[in-house]
Amino acid sequence: MAGCVARRALAVGSRWWSRSLTGARGPRPLCAAGGAGAFPPAATTTTRRHLSSRNRPEGKVLETVGVFEVPKQNGKYETGQLFLHSVFGYRGVVLFPWQARLYDRDVASVAPEKAENPAGHGSKEVKGKTHTYYQVLIDARDCPHISQRSQTEAVTFLANHDDSRALYAIPGLDYVSHEDILPYTSTDQVPIQHELFERFLLYDQTKAPPFVARETLRAWQEKNHPWLELSDVHRETTENIRVTVIPFYMGMRWRYCIRLENLDSDVVQLRERHWRIFSLSGTLETVRGRGVVGREPVLSKEQPAFQYSSHVSLQASSGHMWGTFRFERPDGSHFDVRIPPFSLESNKDEKTPPSGLHW
């Protein structure tokens, strides 16, 4: 298209997003997305940007979704903030924030080498730093197009307190880091398609953002707080592959969410996993297998990240997990990527975990 300037596009499966930047000469025309790529860092952008989408297989024209806002460098996003996920590309809305402790081994102070211990590698002293995450709803229209994930993210609960194998899932709930959010505004009174959107949020045009929490959301957050709460995040990078782990206690078992990110331009493929699981009962279990959750994801410049969730049970009230992922390069060589050690703590076992969705 003639006159299309400063075009940026993000490919998410078959859904394409495009934004045009306002420059010194005034607003540029909104351009159709013509190629894959990722949004550049938006933290320093101070111009208005328009967000649109089209479904390429059906050949639809661009439809206006909203207008981008400047990402916040300081402070938190409020309940009702609309956003585009900067890594996975889906539309979502913020429900409420969590203040987590981020243990980043990439910036940890180096301590004298130690022998391997149940906490993991043991070669670094890691101090946690407060970091903001958000509980969010995912737009159901975008779920089929998120190819960089093993499944649409969901928060799982125990469906039966006496059977740790029975799980209940609330689909379309996710945890998002502050820097993953590209905020935008919309004039649509129901901009996100999710069965809980109108049950949790009320449109109020006098507010900014114009979606406020209903009492239903406040009650749900209070009742399920111990099992939704995100408290610790663990991160480590090996050979430009960053692994982030977020563990959650569910009652009788744990859920952990893992994101793999390729920070380089070279294509790599995950081939094997190697876990070591230590229980305070004194047992040390080793688990090896092909890929993760039945997948062997490829991490490339076009699709640099993959995320999945899994579960683990212990023979004691707490323990630790750590391990490695084995990746393969295009030339057939392999390298191991460390999984940062993380604790599995049942510090909420004095309360009864929810069985299903509590209102």
Structural class: mainly beta
Cα gyration radius (Å): 21 Å
Strand content: over 45%
Q: How many DSSP H or I helices?
A: 2
Largest sheet: 13 strands, mixed
Taken from the alpha-carbon principal axes, the silhouette is: globular
- Topology pattern, helix = H, strand = E: EEEEEEEEEEEEEEEHEEHEEEEEEEEE
Total discrete domains:
2
State mean pLDDT (0 to 100 scale): 78
Q: Can you give the helix content as a percent range?
A: under 10%
Quaternary structure of the protein: single chain
Unreliable parts? 1-16, 18-47, 109-116, 158-164, 349-359
The N- and C-terminal alpha carbons lie at a distance of: 50 Å
Tally of strands: 26
Characterization of the model:
One of its GO terms (molecular function) is DNA binding. With 359 residues, the chain is mainly beta. The protein folds into two domains: 146 residues, no CATH class; 112 residues, ApaG domain (Immunoglobulin-like, Sandwich). Helices cover 5% and strands 47% of the residues. It contains two helices and 26 strands. Strands 1, 2, 5, 6, 7, 8, 11, 14, 15, 18, 19, 20 and 24 form a 13-stranded mixed β-sheet that branches. Strands 21, 22, 23, 25 and 26 form a five-stranded antiparallel β-sheet that branches. A hairpin with a 7-residue loop joins strand 5 and strand 6. The longest helix has 14 residues. The protein is globular.
